[in-house]
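request received
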Amino acid sequence: MTSAPSDAAGRESPWSIAQVADSFGVTHRTVRHYEDLGLIAPERRGTQRLYHRRDRTRLGLILRGKRLGFPLEEIRTIIDLFDAPRGRRTQLEYVLGQVEQRRHDLEQRLRDVQDTIEELGEFEQRCRADLARAALSSTSTGVNA
Amino acid sequence: MTSAPSDAAGRESPWSIAQVADSFGVTHRTVRHYEDLGLIAPERRGTQRLYHRRDRTRLGLILRGKRLGFPLEEIRTIIDLFDAPRGRRTQLEYVLGQVEQRRHDLEQRLRDVQDTIEELGEFEQRCRADLARAALSSTSTGVNA
DNA sequence: CTTTACCTTTACGTAAACGTCAAGTACGCG
DNA sequence: CGCGTACTTGACGTTTACGTAAAGGTAAAG
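response:
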């Protein structure tokens, strides 16, 4: 059930680009594109890329951000925010400000999704009603499966 | 408080492209682009476009779909679904199938948004904790505004 | 009748997010 | 050592979603 192979000491061995790409259902080109834009920075053993869990976590965040309709550049600023140093107070206050913005954005999206699901439900009801009527008029059985 | 001007008989007068564009916060180019892709089809008085409430409703759906990260082509199939004839039973069953797909998609997005908001909240807590500690170490006031 | 403010089509430009070769490199294996 | 497989770096192509400029039509105002 472990998704990543690990050695006897429990240290996870890194993944290749093909492995991460496959596991996330994207192409290696996509993964490298995200690296070009600075969204991930896998370790290098010589010329090969090594993806650790941290990288895979970030990739997950990226793809989720994409599903939510955020542009990659914005996604970069967000996940950079998450592991920023945030040492000094000014920095912390800036980060908190950004967080507020993101929250507003996400709450708008939440409303959008909820509204759409609701409307979809109403529409489905109408369809089912129509379907029931159609069944009644096309067959004379009236009530059945 | 009425958003659209109407005559004495209560019939709403149609809007110009500039009016709809402004009211939705997009450019006229955007509105015409959606028309090019077949997402809206305003009435024509001669060469001028006249936007009725139906068009504005659709535009609202389009923009919401965009906020949710759906591509315009997919949005078109969705809103076409909404005012499709759906007369025959085969058609109705097809429509219901499509609705199911949309619902799955939207529920995924709902989870995405909720998870992100939650993680954002946790992150914010950590930041606030850090901020409190920073305040303690930089000032000797301890507890204040 | 000209100006002005909108509106129209046509068409090329562009930024984002990759896809798709091409050509070379590195590694395990027989 | 050669072979195949996977990885690498360019670099150009493509799709989506418009931006933007050119060139002109139209309708009320002065």
